[in-house]
Amino acid sequence: MSLTISGLTAGYTREVPILSGVNLRAEEGMVTTIIGPNGAGKSTLLRAVFGYLKPASGTVEHFGRTVTGLEPEQMLTEGVAYLIQGRSVFPSMTVAENLELGCWTIRRDRRRVLDALARAYEQYPRMAEKRNARAGSLSGGEQRMLEIARITMTNPRTLLLDEPSVGLMPSLVEEVYQQIGALKKAGYLILLVDQNIRKALQIADYVYVLKMGANSHHGPAAEFKHRLADIIKEWI
Amino acid sequence: MDFSLLLDPSILLELLAQGLVRGSMYALMAVGLSLIFGILNVVNFAHGELFMIGAYVMYFVVASLGFPILAGIAAAAVVLFVVGMLIERVLIDPLRRRSGRGWLLDAFVLTIGLTVVFQNLATELVGSRRQGLVEMIPGSLDIMGISLSYDRLVILAATLVVGAGVWLFVRYTPLGKAIRATGQDAEAARALGISVRQIYMITFGIGASLAGISGALLITIFPAYPTVGMLPAMKSFAVVVLGGLGNLPGAIVGGFLLGIIEAFAVFFLAAGWQHVLTAALVVLVLVIRPQGLFAVQGARP
């Protein structure tokens, strides 16, 4: 089962497409990372897949279903969750409220919500301890942990991670990547964009390189590890 | 000025009662204004006109159609909820898609335009004659030497019930939490599947509905006429500044506080002074404590 992007063209205005004809295939149980110079359209690709901007052309298929141009709400129902770039906890709400809001699309199924909460607290004991604390009072690392826990509440099959380690100090980056490693082991399909290319390549199974909004290279991560210096030099 | 009058408990109580009734109006208006600002980032200049429509709805339902008081208040609440949602979806939502950094000003100007439209529409449709009710429920309660009309008690009780209801709704229901989440970070709310457009529409509807309820409740004091909303709107802006933008409990407490201050000002000073006092208070708060008198750090609705 996979997430397949074919010929995707999208942009914030009709005249200037940021992505032009991007193709990508990410497999279940693997981490696929997208790398490329600044402004290559990596984050835009995730946003276009999740419905934050409408593709002008091209298709997105998820586990055999066409999901091109769906709204975020529908993408979640299709089993795709998205970690947006930057801080995204609701600071003046509690940890528990933040997790409950992660259940928004399944809110009518009380049983599922309670199960999801119980599962999150079991998996992240620190969140259970601080469930009544305001999310804004958590440390930067804890907030990131909450954000990642929050996008798994609806039991998605695919996680789109946009810059999960940005703005964190090195020891916390390590922690976040352990968390992503655990998600990989749990069988999620993960599509990862991160400025920390070294960490992204360590965890990735497959790599796509984007340049100027179009495909450049792609291949198994192992091939990229020793070519990394060359690739980055090429960008500069 | 004779401050020895303050020692007379019946005068003190009478002023307090007057202040609380006046404050009820300010509080409900300010809660709606604060909610709309806190969640949609819209300074709704037309809030007074929503109050005005509420007053007219009350008048027509009760005086013209002969329905009971409660039906009038409920009708005002429902009509304004719908009107508010329409204003949001038809006018504010398209503006949001086009407007960028100038959003706050763009939206503000739009609502100023709405004020003009609503006032003139009212004049054309129903004329500028004052249309009010003499009383909602006849009779009064006599305690401690003063007489509190049932109307005043109804206004006060209804404000407290509605205010507390809104607060509980926003605080504890899933929809209320989604509303708060959207106010704090719309982009993040959307990533969790919350339809931000719908939240904006519903929130504006709720805020408008509160203004409508306020207009209906105060029909015995402020009869319906096209510009009746201007004073309550101005005062609720003052209350929002006092209570802190986006702070709902602050809006309620601030509303009652301003009402009481004004009641005493009217009694002890010449009539014009109450408005000077209000304005001075607002300026003072803006200079000394711009986050509002009751702001908790980082608190938004």
Automatic annotation (TrEMBL), chain B:
Name of one Pfam family that matches: BPD_transp_2
GO biological process, one term: amino acid transport
InterPro entries the UniProt entry points to: ABC_transp_permease, BCAA_transport_permease
The keyword Signal is annotated on this UniProt entry: no
Keyword Phosphoprotein among record annotations: no
Transmembrane segments: 20-43, 50-67, 73-91, 103-122, 153-170, 199-225, 237-258, 265-288
Topology within the bilayer: Multi-pass membrane protein
Entry superkingdom: Bacteria
One term of GO molecular function: transmembrane transporter activity
Keywords, comma-separated and alphabetical: Amino-acid transport, Cell membrane, Membrane, Transmembrane, Transmembrane helix, Transport
GO CC term (a single one): plasma membrane
Subcellular location per the Swiss-Prot or TrEMBL entry: Cell membrane
Similarity-based family: Belongs to the binding-protein-dependent transport system permease family. LivHM subfamily.
Protein's name in the database: Branched-chain amino acid ABC transporter permease
Species this protein is from: Hypericibacter adhaerens
